[in-house]
Amino acid sequence: MLVRPSRVAVVLLLIIATILIRRSSDSCYENPGNPSSIPVKQLYLNDYGRQHDQKARAEIVEPSLKAAPKVAAEKAIVMGRLARDDVDWVAQDLPDWERYIYTVDNDNSTLHTAVNKGKEAMPYLTFIIDNYQNLPKTMAFLHSHRGGWPEAWHNDAPGYMAKNMLDKLKIDYVQRNGYANLRCIHNPGCPGEMQMFRQPPQGELEVEGYMLEVWQRFFNSTAPPHIIGTPCCAQFAVSRDQVLKRPLEDYVHFRRWLLETELIDDISGRIMEYLWHIIFGKEPVYCPGVEECSCQVFGRCDEYTYKAPPTQSSDTRLIEDSDRRRSQEVFQGQK
Ligand SMILES: *[C@@H]1O[C@H](CO)[C@@H](O)[C@H](O)[C@H]1NC(C)=O
Ligand SMILES: *[C@@H]1O[C@H](CO)[C@@H](O)[C@H](O)[C@H]1NC(C)=O
């Protein structure tokens, strides 16, 4: 196949840049602030281009493996952010986690998504796809807010602080269970948030009414369940082994839908929010008891004192769009 000169030039640049980046990151290899994967600017929007991107990387990464065995991270935080969000707290509060923080609205950032679409689902899937060959052993997928009420109302920890959540996280449980929702409180989400056959569709934005078409596209060979339920909000921890139970193509397939869908972000993002636990091997209704969950996931066993906030409902904007099928340039990892 003929390779266009421009592509050759891009690949050459990529090689040089990557070697330089590797050199500088090798020298502080122990520093958890340096993600072990090589951040390479995403040059292509489509997956065809991405494959070339991956190939280019594979070729240049291999030789240096001999010099310094590349060990995947033990544990890493994956996060989406707006350029204007302050995420310095992640390094300060959680220094022993590696960090993969994707800016969704600035292509100049080392880690960024191809587009700002689908809320936190886009950075989450982008991370998995880009790092599939070298995933951290434990991954925590988080929102960009540090804590506090009301902005981090759905953090299930004292002060709604992400730090308090992750400091207590039982890594061995995540490894054993494969997946753990970082929220144990059932409201909202359990016992049956999404009922895709309910007529007329209910709930915020009637999101469940769009679930069937997505289910059929994602899991065509599996009968669509009548009820999907899990604690809300799309913050969870997963083991590498669990992620690898699906082939890379599945995640590419999910992200392709996210890139293509005409549904507004509030709907596509919410649909993904209620599919993560299924993607990672749990049954459609996955609502462990609050006490059991708190004990297993956070080791808060005898002293379960956490009190639910005064109201559990998020501050939702009403979308004035009758058919709710258009993309919008708004990222809200924070609901
Ligand atoms: C990215 O960098 C280019 C070149 O330096 C600059 O023109 C552009 O404004 C930057 N974009 C953002 C969003 O900062
Ligand atoms: C599911 O797969 C079958 C067989 O591959 C195909 O005929 C059908 O159209 C698919 N359905 C959807 C909704 O994609």
Task: Summarize the helices and strands and which ones pair or pack.
Elements lengths: L4 H22 L20 H21 L7 E7 L6 H6 L4 E6 L17 H10 L7 E5 L19 H7 L2 H7 L1 E3 L29 H8 L17 E4 H4 L4 H13 L4 H9 L2 H4 L10 H9 L37
Parallel strand pairs: 1-2, 1-3
Antiparallel strand pairs: 3-5, 4-5
One 2-acetamido-2-deoxy-beta-D-glucopyranose binds next to helix 7.
Number of strands: 5
- Percent of sequence in beta strands: 5-15%
Ligand catalogue: 2-acetamido-2-deoxy-beta-D-glucopyranose
Round the Cα radius of gyration to an integer and report it: 20 Å
Shape: globular
N/C terminus separation? 47 Å
The ordered string of helix (H) and strand (E) elements is: HHEHEHEHHEHEHHHHH
The proportion of residues forming helix, as a percent range, comes to 25-40%
Number of helices: 12
Number of domains: 2
Largest sheet, spatial ordering of strands? 2-1-3-5-4
Biased composition (Basic and acidic residues): 317-328
Signal peptide: 1-21
Region (Disordered): 310-335
Keywords: Signal
